[in-house]
């Protein structure tokens, strides 16, 4: 379980969504009070903690985490404002394990979470590397390679490829992909899927030909080419 303490609702929701999409359990909290109440119920594997919070800032919360014998070893990644070097130094001095500078990308966040967990010896939730043709996707590392060469994908492109690779030869309608990856029905806007498939194919190069269009229906990942 990863706890995200962030008072901006939209930022907190995307943090939790991204972590859950990449194999973690995550809960979000808008302030220190709700966060400490949750700590009494369950200790997380890691905390992503914003510095600028109402009532009690992240530095004060970090101090309490490190002073409490039950929580002092819980890894903490601080989220700091851009250009605020004092915040970074203060956070690290008070016991933070790493920091993210706002605005940060969600894939960077996942990468730093995984790196801190590895350093702390935490075992992540089981997930298996997917391999079809020359494409290899590792959910644990949030990475994709083609013929051993890393391919940089956006979060949605990664999720789209992962969905197709989990069920090769299965045809996914555009509506189903929208529901599974974007989490809502977006009638009349299925072109979003088409655009993501197009860019995904381009980034995969020749391996992009494995993504087959089923005319009038949707897409599938072939395995016989």
Describe the protein.
- This protein is of the alpha/beta class.
- It folds into two domains: about 120 residues, Response regulator (Rossmann fold), CATH 3.40.50.2300; about 90 residues, Winged helix-like DNA-binding domain superfamily/Winged helix DNA-binding domain (Arc Repressor Mutant, subunit A, Orthogonal Bundle).
- It is built from eight helices and twelve strands.
- The strands form three sheets. A five-stranded parallel sheet has the order 2-1-3-4-5, sandwiched between helices. The protein has a four-stranded antiparallel sheet with strand order 6-7-8-9, with helices on one face.
- Strand 3, helix 3 and strand 4 form a beta-alpha-beta unit.
- Helix 6 packs across helix 7.
Task: Summarize this structure briefly.
It is built from eight helices and twelve strands.
Task: List key phrases describing it.
Rossmann fold, 225 residues, alpha/beta, 40% helix, five-stranded parallel sheet, four-stranded antiparallel sheet, 2 domains, 12 strands, 8 helices, Arc Repressor Mutant, subunit A
């Amino acid at each position: 379980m990863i706890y995200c303490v962030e008072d901006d609702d939209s930022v907190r929701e995307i943090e939790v969504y991204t972590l859950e999409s990449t194999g973690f359990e995550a809960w979000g909290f808008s302030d220190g009070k709700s966060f400490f109440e949750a700590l009494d119920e369950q200790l997380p594997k890691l905390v992503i903690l914003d510095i600028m919070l109402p009532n009690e800032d992240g530095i004060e919360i970090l101090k309490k985490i490190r002073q409490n014998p039950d929580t002092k070893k819980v890894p903490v990644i601080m989220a700091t404002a851009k250009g605020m070097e004092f915040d970074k130094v203060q956070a690290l001095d008070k016991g933070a394990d790493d920091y993210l500078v706002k605005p940060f990308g969600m894939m960077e966040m996942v990468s730093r979470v995984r790196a801190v967990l590895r350093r702390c010896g935490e075992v992540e939730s089981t997930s298996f590397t997917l391999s079809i043709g020359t494409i290899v996707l590792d959910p644990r590392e949030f990475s994709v390679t083609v013929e051993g060469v890393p391919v940089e994908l956006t979060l949605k492109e990664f999720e789209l490829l992962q969905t197709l690779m989990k069920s090769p030869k299965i045809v996914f309608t555009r509506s189903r992909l929208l529901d599974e990856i974007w989490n809502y029905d977006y009638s009349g806007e299925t072109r979003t899927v088409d655009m993501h498939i197009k860019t995904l194919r381009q980034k995969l190069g020749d391996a992009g030909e494995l993504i087959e269009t089923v005319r009038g229906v949707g897409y599938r990942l072939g395995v016989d080419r």
